Amino acid sequence: MHLEEKLKKNEITINQSFFINDIASIPDYQDNYGGGFDQSFGWFFSNWGPSFNADGVDGYNNDPAGTIQPDGTVEHPYGSSAFLNNFLGGNNAFNNLYTGERYAWKPYNSVENFFRSGSVKNLSVNLRGSSDDGNVSYNANVGHLDEEGFTPGNYVGRTTLSVGGRAKLSNKFTVQGSMNYTLNNVVSPPVAASRGNGTLGWSTFGNVFFTPRNVDLMGLPFELPENNGSIYYRNGNDIINPRWSVKNAQNGQKNQ
User: Fold this and answer.
1) What share of the chain is helix, strand, coil (3-state, %, to 5)?
2) Distance, CA of 59 to chain centre
3) Angle 98-101-102 (CA atoms, 0-180°, nearest 5)?
4) Burial class of residue 255 (count of CB atoms within 10 Å of its CB; 0-12, 13-18, 19+)
C-alpha cells in the first residue's frame, strides 16, 4: 500500500468574537432608610432603621438608640466592633485606626457597584485541506473560550482541540480517524441558599444582596492585616465580607 498524494487545497479560517456580559437585573433598593429595627439604628442586615433625613418622626434625630449625631454620622463600624475590640486583645490595626472615627449615615450603592461588566472572548482556528483528487482530506480545529463573569471571582476557560482525517488507499480501502480533546477550567465564588445572615450556608450573593443601604461595601476594608481574615460591618464580624469571598474562597473545577 502506497500513499503518495500532495495536499494542495488548504484553507485556514479564523473566527474571533468579543461580548460584554452584564448582570440582567438587581433588586430595586430604596434610599430612605438604613440598618436597624423599629427605626432604631444598629449594624444589622436590615433596612428598618432610621431615615437618612434628619427630621420627622422617622428621622435620625429621633433615633431611639441615640447613636446618630446631628451632623449625620455614626461611629465607624470598625471603631465600634466588638470583634475588633477583642481581636488580639484590641491591639490590632483596624481597631487602632478606626476607633473614634465617624461614618456618614447615608445610602451607598454597594450592590450596584459590586458587580462588574464581564467579558466573553472566543477564538477559533480551523485548518482543512485535501488532495487534488480528493483521496486525502484532513481537518484540524483549535478553539479557546475565555469568560469573566459579571460576578467578581467567576471565570470559565475552555480549550478544545479536534483533529480528523480520511484517506483512500491504493488497495481501495479507506482509512479515517479523529481525535478530540477539551480542557475546562471553572472558578466560582461560594454559592448557597441564604437568609442574609450566613446561617444557611456561605453565599456570596446572599451577603451582597442583603447589604444595608448605609453600608459602603466597596469602600470598607475587607481583609484583616494581621491574618488576612475577613472583616465586615457586623458587630461580631459574623457575616463574611463578599469581597473577601471572591478573592479568597473560590470554588474551582478543572477537567479534561
Assistant:
1) 15, 35, 50
2) 35
3) 135
4) exposed
Task: Note the pLDDT tens digit of each residue in 39-81.
Answer: 999 999 889 999 999 999 999 999 998 999 999 999 999 999 9
Do the Cβ atoms of 165 and 158 come closer than 8 Å? no
Euclidean distance between CA atoms 77 and 203, whole angstroms:
22
Strand partners, 160: 143, 182
Q: How many CB atoms are located within 10 Å of the residue 124 CB?
A: 15
CA-to-CA dists, residue 28 to 63, 209, 226, 254, angstroms: 25, 11, 37, 36
Whole-structure pTM value: 0.82
Count Cα neighbours of 217 within 13 Å in the Cβ-side half-sphere. Answer: 23
- The three grid cell numbers given for residue 234, joined into one nine-digit string: 457586623
